[in-house]
What we know:
heterodimer; A: 204 residues; alpha/beta; Rossmann fold; five-stranded parallel beta sheet; B: 90 residues; 32% helix; globular
Amino acid sequence: MPYNKNVFINCPFDKEYYPLLRPLIFTIVYLGYKPRVTLEKSDSGTSRLEQLLTLISESKYSIHDLSRLQATKKKEFYRLNMPFELGIDYSSKKFSKGLSDKEFLILETKEYDYMKAISDINGLDIKAHGDEPLGIIKCVRNWFVETVGLKKLPSPTQIWYLFTDFYGELYDKKQLENFSDNEINFMPIPEFIDEIEGFLVKSR
Amino acid sequence: MKNRKFILRNIKSMSRKSNHVVPSKGHGWAVKKSGSTRASRSFNTKVAAVKYGRSISKNERTELYIHKKDGTIQDKNSYGNDPMPPRDKR
Protein backbone atom coordinates (compact mmCIF):
# COMPACT_ATOMS: atom_id res chain seq x y z
CA MET A 1 0.00 0.00 0.00
CA PRO A 2 1.32 3.50 -0.79
CA TYR A 3 2.19 5.99 1.95
CA ASN A 4 -1.01 8.01 1.52
CA LYS A 5 -3.20 4.94 2.11
CA ASN A 6 -1.46 3.62 5.21
CA VAL A 7 -2.85 4.23 8.69
CA PHE A 8 -0.48 3.52 11.56
CA ILE A 9 -2.36 2.27 14.63
CA ASN A 10 -0.80 2.94 18.01
CA CYS A 11 -2.90 1.17 20.63
CA PRO A 12 -2.66 -1.64 23.19
CA PHE A 13 -2.85 -5.15 21.71
CA ASP A 14 -4.12 -6.97 24.79
CA LYS A 15 -7.35 -8.95 24.87
CA GLU A 16 -9.15 -6.20 26.78
CA TYR A 17 -8.65 -3.82 23.87
CA TYR A 18 -9.84 -6.20 21.10
CA PRO A 19 -13.51 -5.11 21.40
CA LEU A 20 -12.33 -1.70 20.16
CA LEU A 21 -9.51 -2.88 17.91
CA ARG A 22 -11.74 -5.09 15.71
CA PRO A 23 -14.20 -2.33 14.68
CA LEU A 24 -11.32 0.15 14.41
CA ILE A 25 -9.53 -2.07 11.88
CA PHE A 26 -12.78 -2.88 10.08
CA THR A 27 -13.63 0.82 9.62
CA ILE A 28 -10.19 1.66 8.22
CA VAL A 29 -10.32 -1.23 5.73
CA TYR A 30 -13.93 -0.42 4.82
CA LEU A 31 -12.90 3.14 3.96
CA GLY A 32 -10.24 1.82 1.60
CA TYR A 33 -7.16 2.33 3.76
CA LYS A 34 -4.54 -0.07 5.13
CA PRO A 35 -4.13 -0.48 8.90
CA ARG A 36 -0.47 -0.82 9.86
CA VAL A 37 0.43 -2.30 13.23
CA THR A 38 3.61 -3.54 14.85
CA LEU A 39 2.07 -7.01 15.04
CA GLU A 40 1.90 -7.35 11.25
CA LYS A 41 5.36 -8.92 11.09
CA SER A 42 7.06 -11.10 13.66
CA ASP A 43 10.68 -10.59 12.79
CA SER A 44 12.86 -11.47 15.74
CA GLY A 45 15.87 -9.89 14.00
CA THR A 46 14.33 -6.41 14.05
CA SER A 47 13.74 -4.49 17.26
CA ARG A 48 10.24 -3.28 18.00
CA LEU A 49 11.48 0.28 17.89
CA GLU A 50 12.93 -0.23 14.41
CA GLN A 51 9.63 -1.74 13.24
CA LEU A 52 7.84 1.26 14.69
CA LEU A 53 10.03 3.75 12.88
CA THR A 54 9.43 1.92 9.60
CA LEU A 55 5.66 1.96 10.10
CA ILE A 56 5.68 5.64 11.05
CA SER A 57 7.72 6.58 8.00
CA GLU A 58 5.45 4.53 5.71
CA SER A 59 2.13 5.92 6.99
CA LYS A 60 0.64 9.29 6.18
CA TYR A 61 -2.13 8.80 8.75
CA SER A 62 -1.93 7.67 12.37
CA ILE A 63 -4.44 6.79 15.04
CA HIS A 64 -3.12 6.94 18.59
CA ASP A 65 -5.40 5.56 21.29
CA LEU A 66 -4.38 7.00 24.67
CA SER A 67 -7.40 5.59 26.51
CA ARG A 68 -5.41 2.92 28.32
CA LEU A 69 -2.64 4.98 29.85
CA GLN A 70 -3.91 4.87 33.38
CA ALA A 71 -2.96 2.04 35.73
CA THR A 72 -6.14 0.30 36.86
CA LYS A 73 -4.77 -1.71 39.77
CA LYS A 74 -2.59 -0.93 42.74
CA LYS A 75 1.13 -1.27 41.94
CA GLU A 76 0.39 -1.52 38.20
CA PHE A 77 2.70 0.65 36.09
CA TYR A 78 1.49 3.57 34.05
CA ARG A 79 1.59 2.59 30.33
CA LEU A 80 4.04 4.71 28.41
CA ASN A 81 4.31 3.02 24.99
CA MET A 82 1.40 4.87 23.44
CA PRO A 83 2.47 8.44 24.35
CA PHE A 84 6.06 7.54 23.48
CA GLU A 85 5.02 6.40 19.99
CA LEU A 86 2.83 9.48 19.55
CA GLY A 87 5.87 11.58 20.41
CA ILE A 88 8.02 9.85 17.77
CA ASP A 89 5.26 10.17 15.18
CA TYR A 90 4.69 13.85 15.91
CA SER A 91 8.44 14.60 15.74
CA SER A 92 8.69 12.77 12.42
CA LYS A 93 6.11 15.19 11.00
CA LYS A 94 8.02 18.18 12.34
CA PHE A 95 11.59 17.16 11.61
CA SER A 96 11.58 14.73 8.66
CA LYS A 97 11.50 15.91 5.10
CA GLY A 98 8.67 14.27 3.20
CA LEU A 99 6.57 13.53 6.30
CA SER A 100 5.24 17.02 6.96
CA ASP A 101 1.82 16.14 5.56
CA LYS A 102 1.14 13.50 8.21
CA GLU A 103 -2.24 13.62 9.96
CA PHE A 104 -3.07 12.30 13.43
CA LEU A 105 -6.18 11.23 15.27
CA ILE A 106 -5.86 10.85 19.02
CA LEU A 107 -8.43 8.80 20.88
CA GLU A 108 -9.36 8.75 24.54
CA THR A 109 -12.21 7.34 26.63
CA LYS A 110 -13.80 10.49 28.01
CA GLU A 111 -13.44 13.99 26.66
CA TYR A 112 -10.50 15.90 28.19
CA ASP A 113 -9.10 12.85 30.01
CA TYR A 114 -5.83 13.56 28.23
CA MET A 115 -5.54 16.91 30.03
CA LYS A 116 -4.83 15.05 33.26
CA ALA A 117 -1.87 13.13 31.84
CA ILE A 118 -0.50 14.73 28.69
CA SER A 119 -1.82 18.26 28.33
CA ASP A 120 0.98 19.18 25.87
CA ILE A 121 -1.09 17.68 23.05
CA ASN A 122 -3.86 20.24 23.55
CA GLY A 123 -4.85 21.52 20.10
CA LEU A 124 -4.39 18.24 18.25
CA ASP A 125 -7.40 16.33 16.90
CA ILE A 126 -8.64 14.41 19.95
CA LYS A 127 -11.87 12.41 20.04
CA ALA A 128 -13.53 10.37 22.82
CA HIS A 129 -14.89 6.88 22.00
CA GLY A 130 -16.38 6.15 25.45
CA ASP A 131 -14.89 2.61 25.28
CA GLU A 132 -17.74 1.67 22.93
CA PRO A 133 -17.24 -0.20 19.61
CA LEU A 134 -19.82 2.03 17.91
CA GLY A 135 -18.09 5.03 19.52
CA ILE A 136 -14.73 4.19 17.97
CA ILE A 137 -16.35 3.69 14.54
CA LYS A 138 -17.93 7.14 14.88
CA CYS A 139 -14.60 8.78 15.85
CA VAL A 140 -12.69 7.20 12.96
CA ARG A 141 -15.42 7.71 10.35
CA ASN A 142 -15.84 11.39 11.31
CA TRP A 143 -12.09 11.97 11.29
CA PHE A 144 -11.88 10.55 7.76
CA VAL A 145 -14.55 13.08 6.74
CA GLU A 146 -13.12 16.10 8.59
CA THR A 147 -9.39 15.55 8.16
CA VAL A 148 -8.84 13.15 5.28
CA GLY A 149 -11.64 14.69 3.22
CA LEU A 150 -13.74 11.63 2.39
CA LYS A 151 -17.30 12.42 1.34
CA LYS A 152 -20.71 10.74 1.40
CA LEU A 153 -19.77 8.05 3.88
CA PRO A 154 -22.40 5.79 5.44
CA SER A 155 -23.41 6.55 9.03
CA PRO A 156 -21.46 5.01 11.94
CA THR A 157 -24.44 2.72 12.64
CA GLN A 158 -24.44 1.48 9.03
CA ILE A 159 -20.72 0.64 9.28
CA TRP A 160 -21.37 -1.09 12.62
CA TYR A 161 -24.18 -3.18 11.08
CA LEU A 162 -21.87 -4.18 8.23
CA PHE A 163 -19.26 -5.17 10.81
CA THR A 164 -21.79 -7.48 12.52
CA ASP A 165 -22.65 -9.04 9.12
CA PHE A 166 -18.94 -9.57 8.53
CA TYR A 167 -18.54 -11.18 11.94
CA GLY A 168 -21.43 -13.59 11.29
CA GLU A 169 -19.82 -14.70 8.03
CA LEU A 170 -16.38 -14.92 9.62
CA TYR A 171 -17.81 -17.10 12.40
CA ASP A 172 -19.41 -19.54 9.91
CA LYS A 173 -16.36 -19.68 7.68
CA LYS A 174 -13.84 -20.21 10.45
CA GLN A 175 -16.00 -22.78 12.24
CA LEU A 176 -16.02 -24.83 9.04
CA GLU A 177 -12.22 -24.60 9.07
CA ASN A 178 -12.29 -25.94 12.64
CA PHE A 179 -11.28 -22.76 14.43
CA SER A 180 -12.41 -22.42 18.06
CA ASP A 181 -14.32 -19.30 19.19
CA ASN A 182 -11.17 -18.03 20.88
CA GLU A 183 -9.10 -18.56 17.74
CA ILE A 184 -11.70 -16.67 15.69
CA ASN A 185 -11.92 -13.76 18.12
CA PHE A 186 -8.18 -13.36 18.60
CA MET A 187 -6.78 -14.32 15.22
CA PRO A 188 -3.54 -12.64 14.08
CA ILE A 189 -4.17 -9.09 12.88
CA PRO A 190 -2.90 -9.63 9.28
CA GLU A 191 -5.26 -12.61 8.93
CA PHE A 192 -8.14 -10.55 10.33
CA ILE A 193 -7.41 -7.79 7.78
CA ASP A 194 -7.37 -10.36 4.94
CA GLU A 195 -10.76 -11.68 6.07
CA ILE A 196 -12.24 -8.18 6.10
CA GLU A 197 -10.86 -7.44 2.64
CA GLY A 198 -12.28 -10.72 1.29
CA PHE A 199 -15.70 -9.98 2.79
CA LEU A 200 -15.79 -6.44 1.39
CA VAL A 201 -14.80 -7.57 -2.12
CA LYS A 202 -17.65 -10.08 -2.02
CA SER A 203 -20.24 -7.69 -0.62
CA ARG A 204 -19.50 -4.71 -2.91
CA MET B 1 -35.36 -35.67 -9.40
CA LYS B 2 -35.47 -35.99 -5.61
CA ASN B 3 -31.87 -34.82 -5.45
CA ARG B 4 -32.65 -31.77 -7.59
CA LYS B 5 -35.49 -30.78 -5.27
CA PHE B 6 -33.18 -31.10 -2.28
CA ILE B 7 -30.53 -28.89 -3.90
CA LEU B 8 -33.13 -26.27 -4.89
CA ARG B 9 -34.55 -26.24 -1.36
CA ASN B 10 -31.08 -25.77 0.06
CA ILE B 11 -30.22 -22.97 -2.34
CA LYS B 12 -33.50 -21.26 -1.40
CA SER B 13 -32.67 -21.58 2.28
CA MET B 14 -29.13 -20.23 1.78
CA SER B 15 -30.40 -17.21 -0.14
CA ARG B 16 -32.79 -16.26 2.68
CA LYS B 17 -31.47 -13.45 4.80
CA SER B 18 -30.41 -14.34 8.32
CA ASN B 19 -31.32 -12.21 11.34
CA HIS B 20 -28.89 -10.62 13.75
CA VAL B 21 -29.42 -9.43 17.32
CA VAL B 22 -26.95 -6.56 17.63
CA PRO B 23 -26.08 -3.79 20.10
CA SER B 24 -27.57 -0.52 18.99
CA LYS B 25 -27.06 3.14 19.87
CA GLY B 26 -26.78 3.86 23.59
CA HIS B 27 -27.61 0.79 25.61
CA GLY B 28 -30.27 -0.58 23.29
CA TRP B 29 -30.43 -3.66 21.09
CA ALA B 30 -31.76 -4.17 17.58
CA VAL B 31 -32.76 -6.99 15.27
CA LYS B 32 -31.58 -6.57 11.71
CA LYS B 33 -31.44 -8.65 8.55
CA SER B 34 -28.06 -9.52 7.07
CA GLY B 35 -27.14 -7.01 4.39
CA SER B 36 -29.56 -4.44 5.72
CA THR B 37 -28.33 -1.04 6.85
CA ARG B 38 -31.40 -0.46 8.98
CA ALA B 39 -32.76 -2.31 12.00
CA SER B 40 -36.03 -4.23 11.63
CA ARG B 41 -36.88 -3.31 15.23
CA SER B 42 -35.18 -1.79 18.27
CA PHE B 43 -35.48 -2.83 21.91
CA ASN B 44 -34.42 -1.59 25.31
CA THR B 45 -33.15 -5.01 26.41
CA LYS B 46 -31.25 -7.84 24.79
CA VAL B 47 -33.76 -10.38 26.15
CA ALA B 48 -36.60 -8.69 24.25
CA ALA B 49 -34.49 -8.46 21.06
CA VAL B 50 -33.57 -12.17 21.23
CA LYS B 51 -37.22 -13.13 21.78
CA TYR B 52 -38.31 -11.18 18.70
CA GLY B 53 -35.33 -12.42 16.66
CA ARG B 54 -36.20 -16.03 17.51
CA SER B 55 -39.84 -15.62 16.55
CA ILE B 56 -39.13 -14.08 13.12
CA SER B 57 -36.31 -16.52 12.40
CA LYS B 58 -38.63 -19.44 13.18
CA ASN B 59 -41.29 -17.99 10.87
CA GLU B 60 -38.80 -17.35 8.08
CA ARG B 61 -36.89 -20.60 8.74
CA THR B 62 -33.59 -18.75 8.78
CA GLU B 63 -30.54 -18.43 10.99
CA LEU B 64 -30.35 -16.14 13.99
CA TYR B 65 -26.99 -14.73 15.08
CA ILE B 66 -26.91 -13.34 18.61
CA HIS B 67 -24.03 -10.91 18.97
CA LYS B 68 -22.23 -9.78 22.12
CA LYS B 69 -21.78 -6.11 22.98
CA ASP B 70 -18.48 -6.06 21.07
CA GLY B 71 -20.04 -7.54 17.89
CA THR B 72 -18.56 -11.04 18.26
CA ILE B 73 -20.89 -14.04 18.20
CA GLN B 74 -22.47 -15.24 21.43
CA ASP B 75 -24.75 -17.83 19.86
CA LYS B 76 -26.17 -18.97 16.55
CA ASN B 77 -29.53 -20.68 16.17
CA SER B 78 -30.68 -22.28 13.00
CA TYR B 79 -34.37 -22.56 12.14
CA GLY B 80 -33.92 -23.58 8.50
CA ASN B 81 -31.71 -25.91 6.54
CA ASP B 82 -28.50 -24.50 7.91
CA PRO B 83 -25.71 -25.12 5.41
CA MET B 84 -23.28 -24.50 8.28
CA PRO B 85 -24.83 -25.82 11.49
CA PRO B 86 -23.29 -24.72 14.80
CA ARG B 87 -20.98 -27.23 16.40
CA ASP B 88 -20.05 -27.90 20.00
CA LYS B 89 -17.98 -25.14 21.56
CA ARG B 90 -14.47 -25.94 22.61
